[in-house]
Amino acid sequence: MADYYVAFWNVENLFDVVNSPRRSEKLQRTLGDELTGWTSSVLNRKIRQLASIIIQMNNASGPDILGVCEVENEYVLDLLKNALAPLNRNYRVAHEDTSDRRGIDVAFIYDADLFTAQDQFSHFIVKRLATRDLFQVNFRTNSGRLLVAIGNHWPSRMGGQYESEPYRIIAGETLAYFHERIRQVQNDNNVAVLAMGDFNDEPFNRSMVNHALSHHSRTKVTKARSPRFLNLMWPVLGQGVGTHYYDNTANVLDQFLVSKGLVTGNSGIRVLPDSVKVLDYPEMVKPDDYPVPIRFGRKSSTNPNGFSDHYPIAVRLREKM
After folding, report:
1. Range(s) of the domain holding residue 251
2. How many helices (H) and strands (E) does the chain have?
3. What pTM, to 2 d.p., does this model score?
4. CB atoms within 10 A of CB 84
């Protein structure tokens, strides 16, 4: 039996430095003064802040797989990976550049002693304005079992929750389509699929339930012929805890969705549903009436003692040997 600790974190605008040679001129123009003051020293401070939290995960052993979003490129991912050196783990990066208009991507950092990244795919979301792709990595455990991880960062609620909802519905349909395609390609209705990310909607919203086909009912997931996800974040909704706060209101935007094969364990890997946690470490929380995360921010509003505007989430998987 082997247990795996999987985490996800929207790390909030982890940009490369201002005027980076690794950034296209078009993207430099698009970001404009958003990068003002984003020097090497500021970036390194941001990296140290993020790493100080990641190092605490999994009882200070670090995650086995860490999904992240809002990262600009592989360079900043490597900086973050290297900052985890005190864990003495063989971390590697899985990343692809997407067409997002702000240049921020979804990626994974994983322990190569536990997993092999066999294949990776960037699934394009057809949207009028460029947005992040869904990023799929097919991991193999040392026992040869397949674990498909899909990182998500769906279109934001900027401009209004309901005005922007159709874009997230498109993303939900895209996720559901590739969930079905994965089962078809693998010729296995019990394939282990773990979708994670910042969905910018809550578990009960239409994009999640009607379009991504994620539900709170284990029976609905395990008995359905069509591929459905069990959304592991429903119990969190009843705890008054959020992964993100807007106007002092807790929102559960960061979520784990698991396939039938992970719910039943028929894939050889089983999710431990009671292990899901929102990781609101004390140093990340504003000393206020509402447990709002302390942002690192950007431009003139940078807080060197901040981290991100989202809390990380974590879950455990168990593989039978």
Report:
1. 2-319
2. 9, 15
3. 0.96
4. 19
